[in-house]
Amino acid sequence: MVFEGSEKIIELGVQPGSPSLRRLSYAFWQTLVASAGAEIISTVRNESCDAYLLSESSLFVWDGRIRMLTCGATQLSNALVLFIEKLGAETIAYATYQRKNEYLLQPQIRSFAQDLAYITQTISGKGYRIGHLDSHHHYLFTANNEGHSGKALATTKPVVTIKPLATTELLMYHLRGPLAEYFRSPCQTAEGICDALELSSLFSGFEFDYHLFSPLGYSLNGIKGDKYFTVHITPQEQSSYCSFETNLTDKDLPAELIEHFLLKLQPERWDLICVDRPLLVTKRRDNTSINTCSITTDAGYDVHFKHVHQQGELQFTQII
Amino acid sequence: MVFEGSEKIIELGVQPGSPSLRRLSYAFWQTLVASAGAEIISTVRNESCDAYLLSESSLFVWDGRIRMLTCGATQLSNALVLFIEKLGAETIAYATYQRKNEYLLQPQIRSFAQDLAYITQTISGKGYRIGHLDSHHHYLFTANNEGHSGKALATTKPVVTIKPLATTELLMYHLRGPLAEYFRSPCQTAEGICDALELSSLFSGFEFDYHLFSPLGYSLNGIKGDKYFTVHITPQEQSSYCSFETNLTDKDLPAELIEHFLLKLQPERWDLICVDRPLLVTKRRDNTSINTCSITTDAGYDVHFKHVHQQGELQFTQII
């Protein structure tokens, strides 16, 4: 009835001095992606990053870390565990896993509690909820800096200095207006969506890779040096959704860029998640902020969360 | 991590002229209750109604209808289907099924979509959602008045006049204040809870049956003639919850009675669901009504829904 557009996300970093992850074979990434229930569609590379467009979202690989997003009924915690098993727990500097509360029970995939039980068989860590239980909220797992459970570590282990990326995620739900209509129209094209969102001018110098899914759905990866951004759209009427996330920071990611997406896509509700950077403040007056909160994880980084209602007509009933 | 206190509810009525349901054996009700994953704890009866207190909520049986509520990881759609199978679909005048969006994925039980698929193998009908997808919402199934699918009905079938009960449900989440503390304290007693809620004076003339669960939880059934009310409390810290529902109407159910529960239990959020009667209007000023909506089902009765935030400190993050 409802497509779960919101992505699960994993990010893993390896210890300084480890061989570059970008030297791992294409078959390795195929296997990793398949473990979550997705496939690689296409790839772009530059001097710092390999970006894979997936049948369900994206995978980015840098020398020392990976970040993978998958939507729908994928099981991304499988990929987290497989990555640790393949590389060896002693290689892992950090590991995080994030997922939004789903709209619907999906008996075929693990609950977050089951994810936690599954992941901590391989690496110890802690689970968090951010956001009110009765509204949009996100679950987060972060591995302990001490690394994996079950094996004693050598005391000569270097001090871990590699940290998760500082990221900004803008998750927009229930899109409205002409662009939302266009995403559902038969005349849409991949280039048309890119143009309508003005991505080429906003992200000049980025190399793009995008795909229009049949019958609906759009994914785009953009990379420039070690910076990435990615846009995913699932425009299905009952649960339309667009996500934008990036590791751009500071002057490269002004609040106006967030406002640009909000103005274009007119979401009824949206979440902003900023990791290791402050929440961007948007200026629109016709919003109701339902929920703003922050946590500092045991692994020592801050996560800030805001959930916003846009005023106006909301869709309250549905015949199923 | 979180106990799902909110009840699933079924209600079924039989055709006028059918034998009284109250003549069915105790073993019949045991089997029906067991099919959902619950047990009968105790019973009270009067001239119009048999009220069963269950290990997970309540069952009320009148001559021409039943209403059953079960919480937690029960599978109440099993009981709906079993009741129709045992009685024969041609006997059924109406059937409804209701469930709230759960906090957590529970892979062991059916999703509402799966419930719909399961139920409509036995009786045709339609599913509805009431409330915003991104906030508290409830799913509803109502059988078509035409009765069951699969078999042609005799054209001499009488016009169906029996309708679902006019009910009021007050569902209170995240209880605060001294009474919420008392529900979690080791010194609580069943009588103490009944007294603290002032139920004897509010519902004078009702026969009560109540049970305090170990280590936590409280259920109460009250009956007087064909009127019932029931209170269920699951006070667990992360997801405390109390429900009150009744078929009292008009002057017997003033808005002050709803306010009484809200003042006593100080819920952070609450839902009010009124079937075939208008939403009661409460006077408190410090509320934010997030959502008010109504639907008229194909079966021809109105369902009104209100979801309310109470202002004040809300619990936004949690370590799991």
TrEMBL record, chains A, B:
<dbReference type="GO" id="GO:0004014">
    <property type="term" value="F:adenosylmethionine decarboxylase activity"/>
</dbReference>
<dbReference type="InterPro" id="IPR018166">
    <property type="entry name" value="S-AdoMet_deCO2ase_CS"/>
</dbReference>
<dbReference type="Pfam" id="PF01536">
    <property type="entry name" value="SAM_decarbox"/>
</dbReference>
<protein>
    <submittedName>
        <fullName>Adenosylmethionine decarboxylase</fullName>
        <ecNumber>4.1.1.50</ecNumber>
    </submittedName>
</protein>
<keyword id="KW-0456">Lyase</keyword>
<dbReference type="GO" id="GO:0008295">
    <property type="term" value="P:spermidine biosynthetic process"/>
</dbReference>
<dbReference type="InterPro" id="IPR016067">
    <property type="entry name" value="S-AdoMet_deCO2ase_core"/>
</dbReference>
<dbReference type="InterPro" id="IPR048283">
    <property type="entry name" value="AdoMetDC-like"/>
</dbReference>
